[in-house]
TrEMBL record:
Domain of life: Bacteria
Keyword Nucleotide-binding recorded: no
Phylogenetic classification of the source organism: Bacteria, Candidatus Aerophobota
Family: Belongs to the class-I fumarase family.
InterPro entries assigned: Class-I_Fumarase/Tartrate_DH (IPR051208), Fe-S_hydro-lyase_TtdA-typ_cat (IPR004646)
PANTHER family, sorted: FUMARATE HYDRATASE-RELATED (PTHR30389), L(+)-TARTRATE DEHYDRATASE SUBUNIT ALPHA-RELATED (PTHR30389:SF17)
Keywords: 4Fe-4S, Iron, Iron-sulfur, Lyase, Metal-binding
GO molecular function, one term: lyase activity
Protein name: Fumarate hydratase
Pfam families to which the protein is assigned, alphabetical: Fumerase (PF05681)
Limits of the Fe-S hydro-lyase tartrate dehydratase alpha-type catalytic domain: 11-279
Statement: the UniProt record of this protein carries the keyword Iron-sulfur: yes
Coiled coil segments of this chain: none
Length: 281
């Protein structure tokens, strides 16, 4: 059994919170540059140029890429041979978020109660954690600061099995079309298919962690990713919703077995500031 001190996890999370909000992953930057080359709309091209400049300034000056530094979402793979010592894993993660958002001058966006007492918690906690137990003696932590604009336009549908591929495509495209400019395109689109009501949402969000250009290993799902990306970019929504060819940079699909009577589908939209960062301890 390997012992990992909670304070080590706290420090790692603190750094993840700041770095993810300052530095965009290289695959996203590369996709935006390719989008700039392919965009035919003068306004769309200018917007992409400004987005790339914003990324450059944020990285150099250690400033948030976007004023909405999001809900702190964590996907944690906890090795079954790991023992967390000093305090609980949950407390360590929340303390890391608290320190990272405070010392990193990141906007705090969490309210204490969703309906009756919408008072800001003032430290961006509590965070959201999805923990799964895996083999080994390490902890892998993936952090996603999820902004409200894109998250608000995400959707879940419990389709009928008879709806099939056409029904899935119709729902995904309709979700993007109805979202329009609200999620700040160009988008990365996470799609979950299968599982049940809650699992399909997690699949869609996990899909956002995949690098742009890395397809689903199943050839049929990889083909569906390509087809959806082409059709979505034909919508003409364009960068920031002002028209153009580049509405989305990628469509990533994750799937899971499901009930014989069900065909759950979830679409989790991610804006062009597709921030995420991972660390292994």
């Amino acid at each position: 059994m390997r012992e990992i001190r909670a304070d080590e996890i706290k420090r790692a999370v603190k750094k993840l919170c700041m770095d993810a909000n300052y530095y965009l992953p290289q695959d996203v930057i590369d996709a935006l540059r390719k989008g700039y080359e392919r965009e035919v709309s003068p306004i769309g091209k200018d917007i992409l140029k400004k987005i790339l400049k914003n990324i450059e300034v944020a990285g150099k000056q250690k400033l948030p890429l976007c004023q909405d530094t999001g809900v702190a979402v964590f996907f944690i793979d906890l090795g079954q041979e790991v023992k967390i010592v000093g305090k609980s894993l949950e407390d360590a993660i929340n303390e890391g978020v608290r320190e990272g958002y405070s010392e990193g001058y990141l906007r705090k966006s969490m309210v204490a109660d969703p309906l009756f007492d919408r008072t800001n918690t003032k430290d961006n906690t509590p965070c959201i954690m999805h923990i799964r137990i895996v083999r080994g003696n390490k902890v892998r932590i993936a952090f996603v600061p999820k902004g409200g604009g894109a998250e608000n336009m995400s959707r879940v549908a419990m389709l009928k099995p008879a709806d099939g591929v056409k029904g899935v495509k119709r729902f995904v495209i309709q979700t993007v079309e109805e979202a329009g400019p609200n999620p700040c395109p160009p988008l990365i689109i996470g799609v979950g298919i299968g599982g049940d009501f809650e699992e399909v949402s997690l699949l869609a969000k996990r899909a956002l962690l995949r690098k742009i250009g890395q397809h689903n290993p199943n050839a049929r799902y990889a083909e569906l990713e390509d087809e959806l990306l082409v059709e979505i970019n034909r919508l003409g929504i364009g960068p920031q919703g002002l028209g153009g060819r580049i509405t989305a940079l990628a469509v990533n699909i994750e799937h899971f077995p499901c009930h014989i009577a069900s065909l759950p589908v979830a679409v989790n939209l991610q804006c062009h500031a597709a921030r995420h960062k991972e660390i292994e301890i």
